[in-house]
Amino acid sequence: MEKSVIRCIHRKALFWLLLCVMPMMAVAQDDVTESEVQRLIDEGLYYRALELLESYPDSLKSPVMLRQETRVLTSFARYEEAKALILPLAKDEGSVIDKQLLAGIYESMQLPDSAITVREEIKQLSPYNIVNVLRLSDLYEQQGVGFLGLTMMNSFLYEYPDNRPVRQRRAAVNYAAGYYRDAYADFDILYHAGDRSMNTVYYHGQSLMQQDSLEQAIPVLEEAIKISEEANPFPMIDLAGVYIEQKKPADAALYLAKVDSLMERTPLRIQVLKSYHDLMAETDFLRGAYHSSLRHLRDLGRLAPDLPDIPYRQSLTYRELGDTAAEMKALETYLELRSDPGRKPSPRVLYARRRLEQLREDRFMQQR
Predict the structure, then answer these.
(1) Phi/psi of residue 144, each to 5°?
(2) Which of 47, 70, 174, 265 would be a feasible disulfide site paired with 179, CB 3.0-4.6 Å?
(3) Cβ atoms of 149 and 140 closer than 8 Å
(4) Is-contact 166 134, C-beta < 8 A?
(5) 3-state SS string over the chain?
(6) Are 355 and 318 in contact, with CB atoms under 8 Å apart?
């Protein structure tokens, strides 16, 4: 009888011991699973990581495991499944990391409004989260409300004026919106703070050009060319423009020749071609290569046929060549394009009228 009672006590003790140990075992197993999954993810073995996660019952998965599975599913573009996993963790007062995962899924699904909603929730929880500020700014701009992003970044930079990524982003948004003075102010601050990224150096050079500080712009644009390893045509085009302003056509031609070699490699070929032919026409005109200048103006005309400046410049070139008939035709074309009775005539229009009248008079006198 006594032995039976003792065995009963032992069984009960063992039962309670198991009850106490089981949660600890589950936690230990979770830790092992989490670390093993993370190891597989770090090694790029996503399929094996997913197999391990899917072998584990959803009801027993820790929040860490749910996040791991969300990331793996997202990497396989299984967005609906990923959203279903993370949504319970992210809704209401969910953690910032869960909301960031959900926002990223919405962005991948091309649902910007849903992504904005979630990222605005993150902003309320963590207003100075740099990643969220940058992503939310992108989304606002995509949706045509970039001013909301600017307001947000203004507040951020008021508190953290030395933050480089946010200042870079604000400069880019201002520039894209046409707020050049504000953009250049940020690019100048970044440049003088030691930022030597291509965008910052190039636009700092442009800001100096806008302020007519051409001598100061030259070394900055040269620095941008060096950073791009002469693979970006735009700083070279701008530098050529500076040299043309300074009446240094030989220096301009040097950089334009380099631009010419990049024509087939740039994705913005038409834009580059316009700038290239425009500057080459001016460069050749200044150094007396009039026939070459006309060829570039014709090429420019094919790319921008309605640009009234082209026939005006052609008329000046034909005048230098002494081709009166071609000069008159160019002046007539220019005045047709610029005819606007309700508008005060520009100095160029006045010149074109007087010059055309003079040429007609001269021709009439010669025919008598």
Answers:
(1) 80, 15
(2) 174
(3) yes
(4) yes
(5) CHHHHHHHHHHHHHHHHHHHHHHHHHHHHHHHHHHHHHHHHHCCCHHHHHHHHHCCCHHHCCHHHHHHHHHHHHHCCCHHHHHHHHHHHHCCCCCHHHHHHHHHHHHHCCCHHHHHHHHHHHHHHCCCCHHHHHHHHHHHHHCCCHHHHHHHHHHHHHHCCCCHHHHHHHHHHHHHCCCHHHHHHHHHHHHHCCCCCHHHHHHHHHHHHHCCCHHHHHHHHHHHHHHCCCCCHHHHHHHHHHHHHCCCHHHHHHHHHHHHHHCCCCCCHHHHHHHHHHHHHHHHHHCCCHHHHHHHHHHHHHHCCCCCHHHHHHHHHHHHHCCHHHHHHHHHHHHHHCCCCCCCCCHHHHHHHHHHHHHHHHHHHHHC
(6) no
Pick from 200, 264, 207, 268: nearest CA to 234: 268
Tens digits of residue pLDDT in 189-240: 999 999 999 999 999 998 888 888 899 999 999 999 999 988 888 899 899 8
- Token pair belonging to 192: 């003088």
- Please tell me whether the overall predicted TM-score, pTM, comes out greater than 0.70 for this model: no
For 142-201, write each residue's pLDDT tens digit: 998 989 999 999 999 999 999 999 999 999 898 888 888 898 999 999 999 999 999 999
List, in order, residues 6 or more apart from 100 with CB less than 8 Å away: 122, 131, 132
Q: How far is CA 251 from CA 79, 147, 200, 230, 244, in A?
A: 55, 41, 24, 16, 8
Reading the block at residue 61, the tokens are: 């998965």
For residue 80, give the nearest of 106, 43, 113 by alpha carbon.
106
